[in-house]
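INPUT
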Amino acid sequence: MERIKCGSLRKDNIEQEVTLKGWVQKRRDLGGLIFIDLRDRSGVVQVVFNPETSGEALKTAENVRSEYVLEVKGHVVARDGQTVNPNLGTGEIEVAAEDVTILNKAKTTPFMIEEQSEVSEDLRLKYRYLDLRRKEMQETFKLRHKTTQSIRNFLNEEEFLDMETPMLTKSTPEGARDYLVPSRVHEGEFYALPQSPQLFKQLLMISGFEKYYQIARCFRDEDLRADRQPEFTQVDIETSFMSKEEIMAMTERMMKRVMKEVKGQDIETPFLRMPYYEAMERFGSDKPDTRFGLELVNISEDVKGSGFKVFSNAVSSGGQVSAINVEGKADDFSRKDIDKLTEDVKIYGAKGLAWLKVKEGTLNGPISKFFSEDEAVNLMRRLRAKDGDLLLFVADKTSVVQDSLGALRQKLARSLDLIDHSKFNFLWVTDWPLFEYDEEEGRYHAAHHPFTMPAGGNLEELKKNPKDVQAEAYDIVLNGYELGGGSLRIYQKEMQQEMFEVLGFSQEEANDQFGFLLEALDYGTPPHGGIAFGLDRLVMLLAGRTNLRDTILFPKTASAQDPMTNAPGDVSEAQLDELHLQLKLTSKSDSDE
Amino acid sequence: MERIKCGSLRKDNIEQEVTLKGWVQKRRDLGGLIFIDLRDRSGVVQVVFNPETSGEALKTAENVRSEYVLEVKGHVVARDGQTVNPNLGTGEIEVAAEDVTILNKAKTTPFMIEEQSEVSEDLRLKYRYLDLRRKEMQETFKLRHKTTQSIRNFLNEEEFLDMETPMLTKSTPEGARDYLVPSRVHEGEFYALPQSPQLFKQLLMISGFEKYYQIARCFRDEDLRADRQPEFTQVDIETSFMSKEEIMAMTERMMKRVMKEVKGQDIETPFLRMPYYEAMERFGSDKPDTRFGLELVNISEDVKGSGFKVFSNAVSSGGQVSAINVEGKADDFSRKDIDKLTEDVKIYGAKGLAWLKVKEGTLNGPISKFFSEDEAVNLMRRLRAKDGDLLLFVADKTSVVQDSLGALRQKLARSLDLIDHSKFNFLWVTDWPLFEYDEEEGRYHAAHHPFTMPAGGNLEELKKNPKDVQAEAYDIVLNGYELGGGSLRIYQKEMQQEMFEVLGFSQEEANDQFGFLLEALDYGTPPHGGIAFGLDRLVMLLAGRTNLRDTILFPKTASAQDPMTNAPGDVSEAQLDELHLQLKLTSKSDSDE
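OUTPUT
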């Protein structure tokens, strides 16, 4: 008899004979009866063993423990009115067992399955296969599947071709640190795992495929944070002949489709667009979370002549003064609370956090004495301040003001519970600078990557004044996370050569690393551009999780280890010999574990 | 105005104003007119520039060369009756150009695009982006896309979850050679790139996901042949609670769907099944090509008493004699031709190739004198031989007989053009031995992998008599290629431990390498099994190609190099230092390139 899914049984199935296969979620013995909650991927159903109809099965059931794997045969029956469980899909019925087979036994698991368990993440990762049995995890990976399919279906319908680029590629020093793979055949040489398929997807445009996508694994050997993993998955898209507007509109259609199919939500398009400069000014972030207010207001013009020298000096020395109005919260913050906030902004280099409270139409606080009545009125007008509001100020270099108030804004929103978690606020950040200047190294870095088209494709500006050149680039932001980014690419050889020159490559270096691209640009390269998304991060946001590891089946820890398999691990001398390598360990030990 | 696809234009579009973007396939100047074949992903259309309507565009067109990228505006017009090209989808129309923009120029390409060019594969790989412009290549990768989507759609509908397993995993000495990835954080330790997601997909079954699939990149650092690549793509499937029959039936539904959607062909299911023993006996191969006959016939019983000692001795010393009847070809093979065939079988260790020709109801040839009339009649009956047939014999150890005649069978089929290339003959090979005995090492190897369930799940047989135990394994074969294989897996800890013991693992070694799997088997592992296919090979067969490299966008050469990017390549001292490595080069040179 064909197996029936546990979670699918309903009142309509009453009297039906069924075969179930699944795991014992729980066993309860009650007045000579045995109740087993049987769980499979679809959900849980209650199975009852009783002396009258279950016969030998009752005896077997007595030996059953949590997480045993069972095959149960029986009939679906209605539950007594009293025992109906309205919280369970299958709560109106149960299965009266007639036969049971123990398919496999289970030892006591190191932690309870299905609890919101207080277990350490290390233990959960060591027994990841058990942690993945929890309903929350099962739901997350079903959602991941659904998201992937939704994206694929959309792109297939729009005539994108799903194409696989190589994993064993060439190492290039530009960008993040590569994972390397030693070659056995070519002594002393290495492949690199791709940080992204960027160059290959551009070559596919040069090949004339016009519309490419790939859900691609990418690798970066960087120190990890909560939202970084050594390997991550990217939805990678590239098109020929499409304008920036067309690429952005296509992306919006895709996100609309995903939100509808995965979350059942209609989202509005086009998404809000915000120039990079405005995002930094108003939100102190290049990936603003627009689900709440607490915007930064630049009051430099208002206070440049202020008697409060901290403010006026900041402005006169080329910095700025910005403020956040924490509306209605003046009474919620003691001096001690504000001291704590001050510590927070100091992390970002701010020398202090000035504050004022509005009471009875006037400014109060230690610095209020520096402001004339006119100045105070103007300040309140600029900050839309009213009685009961708390005003927080940072006066410093522009980058410090933006970074510190940006971080403070987010911290306040969380602690004051100002975030509507049902919202999905998509946003484009546009008009990025093409370069970042690295003061330490005295050189330019590409803000996105060295293949990004300068705004307007202006070669002369690029040569003359690289610092001020903007990029034909666009980042997509969701709820304060950078979901992805893209750009139009350089498709003229001269422009690409100039780009490498600005980045400090000698001609030899450029040819050595990117010669194949430069050569390819000679043979009829179409205008092209694209975008790439972090799939793990998108799934994290759609699933309402906060840890990227919860969206990856077998993630690595912060030290890039897998506690389950113990990867990475030792390899044999013979393996090293074949790869023409020897270890060069520091003196401290043979192994750092 | 929206861009129109070149290849989409038909008579219905006549008088329509269009904007086209694409590559110059060819330019011809004829009586003051310029004809350009403009190509994009969809196909080619003829664009005409003439002095009356094209104006400035005609001037621009004069400078245009092959592979330039153009934007053309114009109107669709009917071609003159004489100039209609019935071989081209767009052959009834052309576009009268009114405006043209050169989007990018192109140097003369190192080989012609669209020719069946006689260019070396190395040059084609160096300029892969140009080679990929050829129609044949474009079609192959469109077919690959279609195949992938067809597989995904099928598996999604059957409720399989698309799940991503790690690429940075642990090295295990069992199986092929791993590609290693040195760890920066953990001195002297390495990750390995996966040879397949085998263990992870089994763990996902232990996690309760029940139906998993992944189109997964896999890696093997082995010496390459025409049908091997360092990285390849596998359609990887695993299920819980499904029987072998259910898995095979599901696979057949999937192949039926792919053949219908990709090739428009209805194929019959269920597929033919053949035990391994029979495949070796009848076809001399564990992946028989059943599109043609030339079957091997084991005549050991018939010749064991023969006066021809080569035959009778082979049988009496434990070997066998088998024959192939090359029907109707007696006159096509001279003694010299047969000498050539003899050289071929010697490659496989055969000492010689005996032969007989049937003429006027009797056997002819140098060995015919050894057979009595009765023996000759019996032999002809057994081999269904009739006048004009050529009979070829090998007498030797069974493995030599099968290997040599199996190879000869394929060679004859090709040279005699016996293969119907429109056929897609799917076939299951079943009842595999669980182990292969390695005479040299004096140990057993797993014929599939060490997680394969012994037939009937018989632990006692496994302990007592491993040599004769069969596997719950099934390979799927298409036209003589192994397309994929699968098995039920061991889900009981004791069985898995016994398996490792037979394979010669000490308990410590087993725990060191597979401890996490053994431990996982303790916690409620469901019965499970699956299958995996080589996607590259499937695409190769569906596209009618013979070289695996033609199905991979950026393949490696036989020495695992990419002539385009020059991967693998040198890395810096700093990179090696960070990875705690130094090179250990042999004396011959610093680099072998």
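end of record. The first strand of chain A starts at residue 17 and ends at 30.
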